[in-house]
Write a structure and sequence with these properties.
Layout lengths: L12 H48 L4 H5 L3 H12 L6 H14 L14 H12 L1 H4 L2 E2 L12 H10 L7 E2 L2 H10 L4 H7 L3 H6 L11 H13 L6 H20 L7 H6 L3 H8 L10 H21 L6 H19 L20
Antiparallel strand pairs: 1-2
Helix pairs in contact: 1-3, 1-4, 1-7, 1-11, 3-4, 3-5, 4-5, 5-16, 8-9, 11-14, 12-14, 12-15, 15-16
C-alpha cells in the first residue's frame, strides 16, 4: 500500500503552545516586575502544580507522563490560570486552581483535545465562587526592587502565609466602578476616580496579571494572528461586540453604564478575546461559527459585568459559550461532499 500524496504543515501541539507562551511572555514579565516577588512565587507555584497534577493523572491512567508533559499544554494552562489570579493571592489558590483545571477541567474528559470547557476558566470560576475574598483581594503595583516592594522573605510570608498588609490592597477599575455604583454614585463620576485610560492601557493599576497592561496583551494577540496560530474572527467578534454593546448602553444611560473604551481596556477583555476564547478545543471550527461564538462571549461579558454580582464576566461568558460550541458547530460547519449538514448521505436520484 502506498500512502496518498498529502501535504503536511509544520504545526504541532508543541509549536503552538510555544508560540502562545512567547506571545504571553512580554506582558507576563512586565507584570511580574510590576507586582514583585509575591506574584513571581504564585506564578511558579501555579505552573508547577499543573505539571505535577498532569503527571499524576497520566500515570494513574497508565499513560506515559514525560512525553505528554512535553507538549506544553499543562504548562500553558497553569500560565493562563496564574494570569487570572490576584498577584498576591496565597499559594493554595494556585494549587487548588491547578487541581480544578487539570483534573476536573481536562483529564476527567480524557485529556488534551477532549475537554468541553476551557480548563483555566473552569479553575478561575470555581475559585471565585468558592473563595470570593481571596480571589477579589487586589493590590496596587509594587515594582520589583522598589522601596515599597516586598523583599524576598517578606514575599514568601505573603504568598505562603497569605497575610497582605491592608495598606497595599486596592480595587480594580471594574470593581471600583461597580462598588461606587452600588453606593448610588453615577458611573461617569466614579470613572474619574478609577485608573485612567493611560494607566489601564499600560497596566499601572490593581488587577491580575492578565487584567493589566492591555497594550502588551494586545501585542501578543496580534503576534498570534500574524503567525497564523489563531484567526481574527473570535477576537474581533468579542471585542467588537463588547465595545458596541457598552457604547450603546452608555449612550442610553451614562449614569448606569460605562463607555466602550472603559470596558475594552479594563478587566480581562483583551486577554480573554485573544488567549482564552480562541482555544482550539473549546471554540467552534468554522469561521461563521467562531463569529457567532465571539459575539456571544462579548455580549455575555457586558451583561455579567453590568447586571451580575461580579465585576468581571469574561470567564463566565467563555464557559457559557463553551457549552454551546457543539450546537454552533452543528449548524455552521461546512457540509461534507455527498452528505447533508447532519452527516447523512445525500439521496441519489436517477435521471429520467
Amino acid at each position: 500500500t502506498v500512502s496518498g500524496p498529502f501535504t503536511h504543515a509544520q504545526n504541532s501541539v508543541q509549536r503552538t503552545m510555544a508560540l502562545v507562551m512567547a506571545a504571553l511572555l512580554p506582558a507576563t514579565v512586565f507584570n511580574l516586575y510590576l507586582f514583585g516577588w509575591p506574584a513571581i512565587f504564585l506564578f511558579a507555584v501555579t505552573i508547577a502544580s499543573c505539571l505535577i497534577l498532569e503527571a499524576f493523572a497520566l500515570l494513574l491512567s497508565g499513560r506515559r507522563a514525560i512525553p505528554t508533559l512535553a507538549d506544553g499544554s499543562a504548562a500553558l494552562t497553569g500560565w493562563l490560570l496564574a494570569m487570572t489570579l490576584p498577584p498576591w493571592a496565597p499559594w493554595w489558590t494556585g494549587v487548588l486552581g491547578a487541581a480544578f483545571a487539570i483534573l476536573l477541567g481536562k483529564q476527567v474528559f480524557g485529556g488534551l483535545g477532549r475537554n468541553l470547557f476551557n480548563p483555566a476558566m473552569v479553575a478561575r470560576v470555581a475559585l471565585l465562587v468558592s473563595f470570593p475574598v481571596a480571589l477579589t483581594t487586589w493590590v496596587a503595583p509594587h515594582p520589583l526592587f522598589w522601596a515599597d516592594s516586598p523583599g524576598f522573605q517578606q514575599a514568601l510570608a505573603i504568598t505562603f502565609g497569605g497575610q497582605i498588609p491592608d495598606a497595599a490592597t486596592g480595587a480594580t477599575a471594574l470593581g471600583w466602578v461597580k462598588t461606587e455604583l452600588s453606593r448610588g454614585i453615577p458611573v461617569f463620576e466614579s470613572i474619574k476616580e478609577a485608573p485612567g485610560l493611560f494607566d489601564r492601557i499600560l497596566g499601572l493599576h490593581a488587577g491580575s496579571l492578565g487584567e493589566t497592561s492591555a497594550l502588551l496583551i494586545l501585542a501578543g494577540g496580534l503576534f498570534l494572528i500574524v503567525r497564523g496560530v489563531i484567526g481574527w474572527h473570535i477576537p474581533a467578534a468579542v471585542l467588537g461586540t463588547l465595545f458596541l454593546t457598552a457604547t450603546l448602553g452608555h449612550l442610553a444611560n451614562p449614569a448606569r453604564f460605562a463607555d466602550g473604551f472603559f470596558h475594552l481596556t479594563s478587566g480581562a477583555a483583551v486577554l480573554g478575546a485573544f488567549f482564552i476564547a480562541t482555544d482550539y478545543v473549546t471554540s467552534p471550527v468554522s469561521k461563521p461559527g467562531q463569529i457567532v461564538f465571539g459575539i456571544g462571549v462579548g455580549l455575555l461579558t457586558w451583561v455579567i459585568r453590568c447586571f451580575a454580582g461580579y465585576p468581571e464576566g469574561m470567564a463566565f461568558a467563555v464557559l457559557l459559550m463553551n457549552s454551546v460550541t457543539p450546537i454552533i458547530d452543528q449548524y455552521t460547519r461546512p457540509r461534507r461532499f455527498g452528505r447533508d449538514r447532519r452527516g447523512e448521505p445525500l439521496a441519489i436520484q436517477d435521471n429520467p
